[in-house]
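> example.struct
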């Protein structure tokens, strides 16, 4: 998977690419990308397949663009919530979890299965970026929670983040989610509920 350096394209070309990515994102995440053909997308967008391929030379290139678009939107939301105008810890935590769950709700198990089976290198990139985001954004929120005396000071921030990462990696994969009968959103919600309720102080328990 290539990096996400900005390509030099005209506004018209960029608008066309974004239309394609938006349509593909909706269909790929809901049904998996194996079940959606380039013919299907071209027909829905009202364009020829030749025009579609002029923007994206292959379905793999389009899948990659969809993933990068999703990653950018997730990171933009998390950065805005955690580094924007200051608010109290609980408000920030609830906003962070709500946005993560909303983003995860968009991605259904068929897409994760296709990604792991058909594009393992992209799946690895997604896992790496997810790990980086949890370290950066949840690590900051845990630190803020300790400053507010809502997260226990005797449990190291690094340990809390590693437990969150370990649980996420163990649960948030296609096979385990299917086995447990969970959607990505439900899986992440259960993980964060168990972990955060286990590390809050008495003050935190009264306010969560």
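> example.seq
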């Amino acid at each position: 998977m290539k990096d996400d350096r900005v390509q030099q394209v005209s506004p018209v070309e960029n608008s066309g690419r974004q239309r394609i990515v938006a349509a593909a994102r909706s269909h790929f995440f809901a049904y998996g990308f194996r079940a959606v053909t380039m013919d299907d997308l071209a027909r829905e967008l009202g364009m020829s397949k030749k025009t579609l391929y002029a923007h994206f030379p292959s379905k793999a290139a389009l899948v990659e663009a969809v993933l990068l678009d999703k990653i950018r939107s997730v990171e933009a939301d998390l950065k805005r919530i955690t580094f924007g105008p200051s608010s109290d810890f609980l408000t920030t935590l609830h906003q962070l979890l709500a946005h993560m769950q909303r983003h995860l709700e968009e991605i259904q198990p068929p897409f994760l299965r296709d990604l792991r089976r058909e594009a393992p290198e992209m799946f690895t990139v997604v896992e790496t970026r997810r790990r980086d985001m949890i370290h950066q954004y949840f690590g900051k929120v845990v630190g803020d929670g300790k400053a507010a005396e809502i997260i226990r000071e005797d449990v190291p921030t690094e340990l809390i983040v590693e437990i969150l990462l370990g649980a996420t990696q163990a649960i948030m994969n296609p096979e385990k989610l299917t086995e447990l009968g969970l959607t990505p959103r439900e899986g992440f919600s259960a993980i964060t509920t168990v972990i955060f309720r286990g590390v809050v102080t008495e003050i935190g328990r009264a306010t969560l």
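> remarks
The domain at 64-207 is CATH 1.10.357 (Tetracycline Repressor; domain 2).
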